[in-house]
Amino acid sequence: MAVVVTPPTLDVGVGGTGALDAEVTGVGGVVLRDHRIFWASSNPAIATVSDKGVVTGVAAGRVDIAASAEGKSGIASVTVVAAPARVASVKIAPDVVNLVVAGMTTLVATPYDSRGAPLSGRTVVWTTNNATVAAVSQTGRVTALIPGSAIITAVIDTAAAGAADATASTRVRAAQRKRRAKRSARKPRVKTVAYGTGSATTAGAGRVRIRIGARHSALTALRRLRRLRVSVTITFSAGGPQTTTTKAVTVKAPKRRKHRRG
């Protein structure tokens, strides 16, 4: 006679359960039905077993579960694995995103346990409440599609550890890309004169404005002023914080030639 336990090996989590079965066999492997089976654990601190063969994990470790009948025993090896820490909260970074249409960014969801310690190795499921405004991939990549607002949610499923789902959300705002304003083709009504670098002021000519730039020399500036046919006094100053040089130049309008009558 022999006692056969199936399955011969079993894995359960801490707090989880698993079932074992035992049969008493006789000569030639014939199953004997009228024998009572007794169950026992070699270490109840790691796993216990009921009189029906149901094993409950208590602590991480390995234990032998024996089924006995008529002085004969069968053994099953049971391994109890530690349950993953329960996810108490989830945080998404960044928590607010502003994108232009066709812009993209990547969100990161981090789960934490009840002590605030980050957890790793968890699967994150990403969802959006407005797929027409913002799409999100399962890697956390967000793409703005049209102007509007959407909420992106990260769900970490901890149902296998006996806990509820942990979720966190972030808001995405999508805006239309700004268009550059077209420059006016009209010429400015006030003519511009440039002189070297530094600063310049004018006196006596309301229609003349001085713009500073490195593209023109003083001579070019003076020539342009003469074409305006106005008499002005221009004060040029240039220099750094420690040194300043000032130069005053008076530009007179050219005299108009009188045409002699023939």
Word description of this protein:
By secondary structure, the chain is mostly beta strands. It has 3 domains: 80 residues, Immunoglobulin-like (Sandwich), CATH 2.60.40.1080; 87 residues, Immunoglobulin-like; 61 residues, no CATH class. It is 4% helix and 48% strand. The protein is built from 1 helix and 24 strands. It has a 4-stranded mixed sheet with strand order 2-10-9-6, with no helix packed on it. It has a 4-stranded mixed sheet with strand order 12-19-18-15, with no helix packed on it. A hairpin with a 2-residue loop joins strand 9 and strand 10. It is rod-shaped, with a radius of gyration of 44 Å.
Please tag this protein with its features.
262 residues; mainly beta; Immunoglobulin-like; 4-stranded mixed beta sheet
